[in-house]
C-alpha cells in the first residue's frame, strides 16, 4: 500500500509539474505554425542607439527588453500574440514564410504579398492625447494635435501626398492602404514641473491611460536624451499600454523640430503599437521583422538615403515608416505590414475591440 501511495504521489507530482511547465511552453497545436524564427529580446537596439549620431531614436525595443526582465510571463504572452497573428494570416491569405526577410530567396528583396480579406472593413481607432508640460512650448496647441491625427490618417490610408517611389524601384506594388483610421476622442492637459520623463513609463504612472482596451492613449511629454518616442507592443500590461512622444516630434505645426516635423514619429510608434517591428528586425541580415514583403537589412537607415541602398544583398526599403529615415523620406507601409497589423483585430486578439470583436 505504501508503494502504491508513493507511486501515486510521484505520478501526481509529475502531472502537476507538467501542468506548471505547460504555461511556459507552446501548446502542441502551435507546432502547426512555424515559430522557429520568433525572437523578442535582442541586444541590437542598444548597439544601434550607441552608434546613432543622427539623433533619431525610437526606444520601443529597449523598453520591451526591460519589460521582459521585469515580467517573466510577458514572453509567453507575446509568443501567443505572434502565433495567433501568423495563424490568422495563413488562414486568410498567403501563408506566412518566417525568416525570409522579404528576399524570397531571390536576392531581389521584392516579394508581392496580397492584402488579406479579413472582413473587418475600415477600422477606426479613437485616440486620447495626454499633454504633459512643464513650459508653454510643451503645452502644444489643439492645431498641432489635429495635424498629427491628420498625418496618421493619411499615412495609414495611403493618401499621403509625398508617396513618391524613386525611379527604378520595385516597391510600387507593395505600398498599401491599411484601412485603419484615427479619430481624436479627447485631450487631457496636465502641468507638471518634471523637465523630462525618461522611458520607464513614469508619465503613464502619473497620468494613467483611459480605457486602453478601447482607446489608443498617446502621451505628449518630454522624454529627454534625444529620444523621439516609444510604444508598447500588443500583449503588455494594460496599465502602461500606449505611445509616448516628445512634443517637438508630434504633428506638423507649432512646436516641432526638423527633420522630424512631419508627424512620422507617431506613425512609426503606432506601427509598433499595432505589432510592427523595425523593418531590419532589430538584428542583422538573418533576423527578421516577420513580414514577407520587407527586404532584409543589417540595421537602420538614417537621413534621406540614395536609392538603391543595398544591404544583405537586397535593396533596403528605406522609405518604410518602420525604418529610421527622416520624416520627409519615409512614406509607406507594405501589404505584409497591413496584414500583420490587422490580424490583431481578430476575435480574441489584443486589439480586437477596435474592430468590434
TrEMBL record:
The keyword Phosphoprotein belongs to this UniProt entry's keyword annotation: no
Name any one GO molecular function.
metal ion binding
Annotated keywords: Disulfide bond, Hydrolase, Metal-binding, Metalloprotease, Protease, Signal, Zinc
Q: Which GO terms describe its biological process?
A: proteolysis
InterPro entries in the record, alphabetically?
MetalloPept_cat_dom_sf, Peptidase_M43
The family classification in the record reads: Belongs to the peptidase M43B family.
Designated name of the protein: Zinc metalloprotease
Provenance organism: Polaribacter glomeratus
Amino acid at each position: 500500500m505504501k508503494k502504491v501511495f508513493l507511486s501515486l504521489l510521484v505520478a501526481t507530482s509529475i502531472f502537476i509539474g507538467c501542468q506548471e511547465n505547460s504555461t511556459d511552453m507552446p501548446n502542441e497545436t502551435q507546432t502547426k505554425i512555424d515559430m522557429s524564427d520568433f525572437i523578442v529580446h535582442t541586444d541590437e537596439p542598444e548597439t544601434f542607439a550607441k552608434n546613432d549620431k543622427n539623433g533619431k531614436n525610437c526606444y520601443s525595443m529597449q523598453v520591451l527588453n526591460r519589460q521582459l526582465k521585469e515580467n517573466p510571463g510577458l514572453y509567453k504572452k507575446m509568443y501567443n500574440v505572434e502565433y495567433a497573428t501568423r495563424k490568422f494570416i495563413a488562414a486568410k491569405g498567403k501563408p506566412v514564410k518566417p525568416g525570409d526577410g522579404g528576399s524570397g530567396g531571390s536576392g531581389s528583396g521584392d516579394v508581392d504579398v496580397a492584402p488579406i480579406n479579413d472582413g473587418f472593413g475600415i477600422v477606426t481607432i479613437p485616440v486620447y492625447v495626454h499633454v504633459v508640460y512643464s513650459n508653454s512650448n510643451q503645452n502644444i496647441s489643439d492645431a498641432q494635435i489635429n495635424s498629427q491625427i491628420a498625418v496618421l490618417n493619411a499615412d495609414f490610408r495611403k493618401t499621403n501626398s509625398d508617396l513618391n517611389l524613386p525611379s527604378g524601384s520595385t516597391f510600387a506594388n507593395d505600398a498599401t492602404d491599411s484601412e485603419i483610421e484615427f479619430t481624436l476622442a479627447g485631450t487631457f492637459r496636465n502641468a507638471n514641473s518634471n523637465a523630462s520623463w525618461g522611458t520607464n513609463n513614469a508619465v503613464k504612472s502619473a497620468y494613467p491611460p483611459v480605457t486602453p482596451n478601447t482607446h489608443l492613449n498617446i502621451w505628449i511629454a518630454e522624454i529627454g536624451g534625444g529620444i523621439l518616442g516609444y510604444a508598447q507592443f500588443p500583449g503588455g500590461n494594460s496599465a502602461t499600454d500606449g505611445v509616448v512622444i516628445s512634443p517637438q516630434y508630434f504633428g506638423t505645426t507649432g512646436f516641432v523640430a526638423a527633420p522630424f516635423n512631419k508627424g512620422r514619429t507617431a506613425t512609426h510608434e503606432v506601427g509598433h503599437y499595432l505589432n510592427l517591428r523595425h523593418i531590419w528586425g532589430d538584428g542583422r541580415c538573418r533576423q527578421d521583422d516577420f513580414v514577407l514583403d520587407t527586404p532584409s537589412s543589417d540595421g537602420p537607415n538614417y537621413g534621406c538615403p540614395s536609392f538603391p541602398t543595398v544591404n544583405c544583398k537586397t535593396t533596403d526599403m528605406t522609405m518604410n515608416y518602420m525604418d529610421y529615415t527622416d520624416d520627409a523620406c519615409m512614406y509607406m507601409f507594405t501589404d505584409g505590414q497591413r496584414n500583420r497589423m490587422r490580424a490583431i483585430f481578430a476575435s480574441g486578439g489584443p486589439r480586437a475591440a477596435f474592430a468590434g470583436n
